[in-house]
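Subject: sequence -> structure tokens, single chain

Hey, anyone have a minute? Need the predicted structure for the following. Not urgent.
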Amino acid sequence: MDRTLESLQLVIAQVLPHRDPALVFKDLNVVAVLQEFWESKQKQKAIFPSEGIIVYESLSSLGPPFVSYVTLPGGSCFGNFQSCLSRAEARRDAAKVALINSLFNELPCRRITKEFIIESVREAVSSTSGNLKDADDPSTSIGAYHYMLESNIGKTMLEFQELMIVFQLLHWNGSLKALRETKCSRQEVISYYSQYSLDEKMRSHMALDWIMKEQESPGIISQELQVALRELEEVRKAGQELRFYKEKKEILSLALSQIYSDQVTTSSWDDQMSLALHGYQ
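Reply:
Had a minute. Here:
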């Protein structure tokens, strides 16, 4: 633990040279420190491909405990894990979690290397009761994971997660299974979707997929939304990266709003279904 703290302080000294590494996490203005960190990254041109700004979001609530999320450039999302009595406190707590993870991401151990890939694949095999030989076969889940890691050597784990979020959502959405049924290889699917980042267009297509599922199984969206909300709260309270769970909530909420919107006409409904049937293009 002491060695990790020393490594984090070294990162702070490099990225924020005028800050005292021992005092950064005690700084009450941690929101400004987080902003400064990412502005420094931008000046060094070490920013993510999908450049952006830090975005804060507070959940509407009549009283405590308050919840705040912060989304970093690249899309990684964190929330306050403590029970906060004010919105300002929740925002600071979320910023602190995001800052710690941003700094931790700068450590050498968080960069994808050959050694990192070997260890990650072994862990994946162990957790799935798979076979290490599958790592050389892109048609298997382990092989696809190995291929994606190999394709991203040199990137940090937050950068890798930006790519992985698309495949996590496609898997959850059932789209990957549908693509396999069309005889597309995992390698072809990975190569295709690696070109895209998660945006409003992709979210809308996924929402339309869930609208179609609702037609077949009424109530399924509400059930999935309850699961997503429960998962999101658990992950937030654990201080973990939570974009996957938050994106699920957003997509399902979008689907529900489209279903119950009075503005949806029969013709536009047909158009939406047609778009969904044509997949993500």
